[in-house]
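Researcher: Here's a chain I'd like modeled. Treat it as a single chain, no partners, no ligands.
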Amino acid sequence: MEQFDVLVVGSGGAGQRAALEVASREGLRVALITKIFPSRSATAMAQGGINGVLNNVAKEDTIEDHIFDTVKGSDYLGDQDAIEFFVKRCPEGIKELDYFGAPFSRTNENKIAQRNFGGQSYPRTCYSADKTGHVIEHTLYEQCLKHNVQFLQEWYLLDIVKVADGSVGGVVAWNMKEGRVEKIAATAVVIATGGAGRMFWTRTSNPYLSTGDGMAACFRVGCALKDPEMVQFHPTGLGKSGILMSEAVRGEGGYLLNNKGERFMAKYAPSKMELAPRDVVAKAIETEIAEGRGFGGTGLDAYVVADVRHLPRELILEKLHGIRDLAITFEHADPLVQPIPVRPTCHYSMGGIDVKDYKTCATVVPGLFAAGEASCVSIHGANRLGGNSLADAVVFGKVAGEGAIAYVENNSAKDAAKELNDAATAWEAKFKEVTGRTTGRPVSEIRDEMALAMWNKVGIFREESKMKEALETLNKLIEEYKTCYVGDTNRTFNMAFVNYVEIGSLLTVAKAVVLGALRRQESRGSHLREDFTKRDDANFLNHTLISLGEDGEYQVGQSDVVITRFEPKERTY
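Model: Modeled as a single isolated chain. Structure tokens:
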């Protein structure tokens, strides 16, 4: 059995930044478990940039402006004290990445370049062409290797284990290479496992690994999921695949056009146009399609186009070369000469594990911390600004590392041998039982029915009767999941078993999303109710909390939004 002071789960920007922070403290043992190779996490897919007030392009930009843009972008559901804490730490986080060697694009004065992004008052999004997340991820990986972080790769989180006093004792994980359950004792655990976008399966920009594992595991040990209904749909996924086409396309001056050749954003956000916040643009695109102004009809194959042909060829080749490659590969459209088919795609979970203290990233379970997309601090509220997610990962990854260090220094390691042994024995028995089944509904069918229900009934536009139908479907699928067919009894690299556990996590989180969406009888940010079209501050200026009761049933509650300086007002762009 392995023993560590701090165990980090997840190798994206938040996880690696947390591990690096702990590893920089002499005398502490830290390990990071990841179900993939560490540089292949979802952070590597983030294209557009990372926000921070550096004043390299806009001298007049201020911390105050970034705070207000984030509060307004959140549709006033973000906690304003946490947002202020976050925004003030963004410049330091970016400068640290620069110091670590992240190859940012540069201005003529050799400063970090900054571009316009949706919903922001000034160009404050720092970038590396259109591969910003990729370079941040690789830079952090180099630093983690330099500081001797122990990587346990191709290990998959099964469960978080608590000891008798209710605090964390460690985790059990599935070692894919060896085909066995591993026990890892840890004084503190940081969960940074990313989002759950694969509940929509192929209509998402998330990688296949974004299955809500950490959210589901924390949910099972007593953490609430906060605002799970707040799922961001990026306005520009590639038409056929949902693969992300970065906001950088619009940030650099690209147009969105309907089948009449109109720049239709003039109707929805006349001052910001294509650079309105993501929820505004996504809603506009879906409205254009629903009203017959998309290409290819009104079904799932319909789309509008992004046009950059008016931009200089050199700009596209230098700053948007990654986007061009994706468009050519997946849409057979060269942006130099053709418009790119686009349509909204599930992109980001604003909700997640309820973080009780934004200054440490601590949860309600002593010794358990959460950071990045898996968590809800809450700084994104009902809608995240582009460029704030990489900043979130870097800032709160470090904060979670600091919080875990402080916890370890003030709490001795717990003897969790019995609890870890019991959990490992239970999972070993489950592996044998599940993989030994010869009947039952195939996991892939359960997955596909879940995705179809979520996209059609709990997608961009939501309405009570359809969401209740989705909830009935999910409850049925959760029952079928208990006896589902996996079909592979091998131990080494049994991806059928891993997929089985992942779908269980997705079903858990998807049900929380639907319950939260049913509770919130208003439209706010990314949450658009067709039966409650207005924002309702009188009844819903609060956070949704979905927790697991002692009877195993989901409990629906709420908590207050922290408002400090900015009173809610109508959100226009």
